[in-house]
Design a protein that fits this description.
With 628 residues, the protein is α/β, with parallel strands linked by helices. Helix content is 32%, strand content 26%.
Length: 628
């Protein structure tokens, strides 16, 4: 810790000769090792302290501290009420001012999901997708009150009277910072204006940020305008994206378009200028160009909300009117002018035909696009080690497979009654002719999932003698599961957490984060217990269990073959005659197409699925030999 002392007369004379002035030189203190030759053309107002190694020129500094080896150059108006850390660079900035009236974006309420309010989330630097989900979707008064108290108590411990620019930060070519803080190694380059915000990540040229928080490793790029927003670790807003009252969590990418009252859970993606994300929760979502949503029926205002569960996609120029709920991994194509609820049927295709909504349950399972998505999310995770967001990118899990099992029962009932009974409740039609295909795909997905889990456990048992739970008595893990913005876990444990907060048993935010992290770490254990509740107890020494295990592994092997066939059939459409069109300068159209696209047999996705299928067949054979 450096010691600071007042200037002596000789030092004051040196500074004056270098174009410096002060309202009161007695209020200026310096470190002993400060090189005064690097302090030029600067006016000092009120109390200012200068650490060793700092450089200041062409600036006005008021009531501030400047850290070691910090460089400040060409300040248009003033730096006022700032605590500036070490190794900071501030150049070509209009003003950095703190007047004590703001809160740096901490405690700002963002009206997410419902534009008119009602699901407000308090912003703070450690906000996670899961804790935000609890704030937005658990609205019991006592819970909301206690959760808000926990967050506000955390914020109240902070000193909000001064702007803090932490060590290693860079602020260059910026219009103004008003009531803002910049975190360690945070960077602001070319932004127009930052007001009442905390910037721990990056803000780029031409952007305006107000009442918002940009997390470590979060990015607000070129030309963005955001107000009352949270940009999480690894989330990116860029190329003129505009948003208000919105949260963007891990690995979300939103470019060019607009967002209003958006809860963007992990891997929400919108890359097109004409796309509007509005009043909804989106997760692992991909927006097509011109995707649009409507929450206003011109009656009581914008009071409606929508839910696109994980893995959803909307095609180009697609439209949904709220309130609607779309099941996991559903592709939405076309315009849907009436509210739809497909929550009973995951992995589906929702089409618009002659103004009517038509649902094809299970149509997305084991398609080339589905398989590509499953692989891309695993390799596109950019989170830093400090990210509070929990991300589970699995498509088949107790959450979605339980949905499939329920959908199978519903479809069997519809098949017996002509396929018409369910139409009104989903807001659309399910073609009778597709029900058989849907059941086949759903059964294949269940068999593939069951076999994958059982095979992994049995391989550990036979190869290394690792024992596993043969039965389960945990009512929570075998009950209903939920997807909490990327955290897949038994719903009972989330209810316990909500009850503990409601009853005041949990006092600190770190306790909440710790419980959520523990639930994430216990996923494999809970998943196995859930699976046992569906297939029955397993004892490798029991003849009855051996018959069960054999059936599961055989079904797994056959489901893998079905998966390969469906993926190849879907992918081959990209190589059919009407798609094999070359637009190059050479006359040989087929050769031109092959040079660009490659061959079907050598396609990376096809080769990967073929290899995985061969591996599964081999693994299944080895296990069947050991089971008998």
């Amino acid at each position: 810790m450096e010691k600071y002392r007042p200037l002596d007369q000789r030092e004051i004379d040196v500074l004056v000769s270098q174009g410096c002035a002060a309202t009161n030189w007695e209020c200026i203190t310096i470190a002993d090792k400060l090189d005064l030759s690097k302090i030029k053309f600067t006016d000092f107002i009120s109390n200012v302290s200068l650490a060793s190694g700092c450089e200041v020129s062409h600036a006005v500094i008021k009531n501030s501290h400047i850290g070691m080896n910090t460089k400040i150059r060409r300040i248009g108006r003033i730096i006022e009420n700032c605590e500036i850390g070490d190794r900071v660079v501030i150049e070509n900035v209009g003003a950095i001012i703190c007047d004590g009236s703001g809160n740096f974006g901490l405690g700002v309420e963002a009206s997410v999901v419902i534009e008119s309010g009602g699901r407000n989330v308090l912003l703070h630097s450690e906000l996670s997708a899961q804790s935000a989900y609890l704030q937005a979707f658990c609205l019991m008064p006592e819970f909301k009150k206690n959760f808000s108290f926990i967050i506000k108590n955390k914020i109240d411990l902070l000193d909000l009277t001064k702007t803090v620019i932490s060590s290693g930060a860079t602020i260059c070519d910026v219009g103004e910072l008003f009531n803002c803080c910049v975190g360690e190694n945070g960077k602001i380059a070319g932004a127009n204006s930052i007001k009442n915000s905390t910037i721990n990540g990056f803000v780029g040229a031409g952007s305006n940020v107000e009442n918002s928080i940009v997390s470590i490793n979060g990015r607000v790029g070129v030309g963005c305008i955001i107000n009352k927003c949270f940009v999480a670790d690894s989330a990116i807003l860029d190329y003129g994206f505009n948003a208000e009252n919105s949260l963007f969590f891990a690995n979300s990418e939103c470019f060019r378009g607009e967002g209003c009252s958006v809860f963007a859970a992990p891997f929400t993606s919108s890359h097109h200028k004409a796309t509007l994300l509005l009043a909804g929760i989106y997760s692992y979502y991909t927006a097509g160009s011109g995707s649009n949503f409507s929450n206003h029926r011109f009656k009581l205002g914008p009071i409606h909300q929508g839910v696109l569960e994980r893995g959803g996609k909307t095609g180009s120029s697609s439209y949904l009117i709220w309130p609607s709920k779309i099941a996991p991994f559903t592709n939405v194509i076309g315009r849907h002018d009436k509210a739809v609820d497909t929550s009973l049927f995951p992995f589906s295709l929702l089409l618009s035909e002659s103004g009517n909504s038509v649902l094809l349950p299970g149509a997305v399972i084991f398609t080339s696009g589905f398989e590509r998505d499953m692989s891309k999310w695993l390799v596109r995770d950019r989170r830093s080690e400090s990210s509070p967001d929990i991300v589970n990118s699995l498509a088949l899990s107790p959450y979605t497979v339980d949905m499939i099992l329920k959908a199978i029962k519903v479809l069997k009932g519809m098949n017996r009654k002509g396929g018409l009974e369910q139409n009104n409740s989903i807001g659309g039609e399910i073609p009778q002719a597709f029900i058989g295909k849907a059941l086949a795909r759903y059964h294949a997905a269940v068999n593939f999932y069951y076999g994958s889990i059982v095979a992994e456990v049995l391989e550990d048992y036979y190869c290394s003698g690792v024992r596993f739970t043969e039965s389960c008595t945990d009512e929570k893990s075998v009950g209903e599961w939920c997807d909490i913005a990327g955290l897949i876990t038994p719903k009972g444990y989330i209810i316990d957490l909500i009850d503990d907060i409601t009853e005041g048993k949990i006092k600190g935010y770190s306790e909440i984060s710790g419980i959520l992290s523990e639930l994430s770490g216990s996923y494999k254990k809970y998943e196995w217990e859930w699976l046992l509740s569906k297939i029955g107890n397993i004892d490798p020494e029991s003849k009855e269990s051996k018959d069960l295990m054999e059936a599961i592994i055989v079904n797994w092997r056959e489901a893998a073959k079905i998966r390969l066939e469906l993926v190849k059939r879907d992918a081959y459409k990209e190589f059919t005659e009407n798609m094999s069109i070359g637009y190059g300068l050479i006359d040989d159209v087929d050769l031109d197409f092959a040079n660009v696209r490659g061959s079907f047999e050598q396609n990376t996705l096809i080769c990967r699925i073929e290899k995985e299928t061969k591996d599964i067949v081999a693994r299944a054979g080895a296990l069947l030999n050991k089971i008998v």
